[in-house]
Amino acid sequence: MTKVSPKQKRIDVLVSQLNDIARDQIAFMNFFPSLADDIVPGLAKYLGEDDCVRLSNHGDEFSFVEDYGHSGLGVEGGRFRIPVMVRIRDHASCQDVDDSAVEAEGQGTKKAERKKLGKLKKSGKKGKTKTKKQKVMAASFGETKTGKTKKSKKAKKKKPKKNQEDTRTDPDCNETFLRFKLFCELRDDDIIIDIAGTKKVTVRADDLGVLYEAIFDYLQDYFSPEKFFDKEVDSYQNASYGFFRKHF
Predict the structure, then answer these.
(1) Is this structure's pTM higher than 0.70?
(2) Do β-strands 174-187 and 199-203 pair in parallel, antiparallel, or remain unpaired?
């Protein structure tokens, strides 16, 4: 605590302390946001999947669909907070959904063809193509033109709307998410990063490989099957993680 000299105003002491805080905050805000932006693609590349890592917000609720940007960055307990979220997808389940959708589409087409054939049989038509003479006569009564119009209308109906997503190219995959915080301190040229209060690593801004390795170890430990079935551990969020949908 700063001692107050007889000639010094007490308010000046507070001004000095706040100026010290301001200098530290400026240093943090000049350095750590760009570091956070480097960590996101760097960790995603290390884990082996683009866009599997994003910055989250500061609160407990988060969504991987939303882009929180720097909204969750800030100082917490004297250290700079970088909240990160990781999405883990089971791509084998994506393929299963994709294949089943294609199979269902094929079955639907066959069913429609059988239905059409049944109607032809009931009406006594054999479904033969028209002769050249019949086509010429039909054209004189505008039948061919009407047929083309109907076809073009059907084609228009089938045409997907602009920006409409193909659900088969973006199928419903088995996936889970984890959100955790990195707490950072500056020590000269070194950065000391605490990963979710479990492990501290010392890195440099131009070499974050040690951090990514430590985060991967943290994720492996967090999703450890042994820990999941350990009744004494409460930190596994009440068994809310795992790919359950296809089996229960």
Answers:
(1) no
(2) unpaired
For residue 28, pLDDT beyond 90? no
The predicted structure's pLDDT at residue 79: 92
Name every residue whose Cβ is closer than 8 Å to that of residue 214 and which is 6 or more positions away in sequence.
195, 199, 201
Q: Distance between terminal CA atoms of the chain?
A: 60
Taking each continuous run of H as one helix and of E as one strand, the counts in the chain are 6, 6
Residue 41: pLDDT over 80: yes
DSSP character for 188?
A: T
Give the C-alpha separation, 147 to 136, whole Å.
Answer: 14
CA atoms within 13 A on the CB side of 231: 0
Give the other-Cβ count within 10 Å of 36's Cβ. Answer: 21
- In terms of Cα–Cα distance, which of 84, 76, 24 is closest to 52? 84
Sign of CA dihedral 158, 159, 163, 168: positive
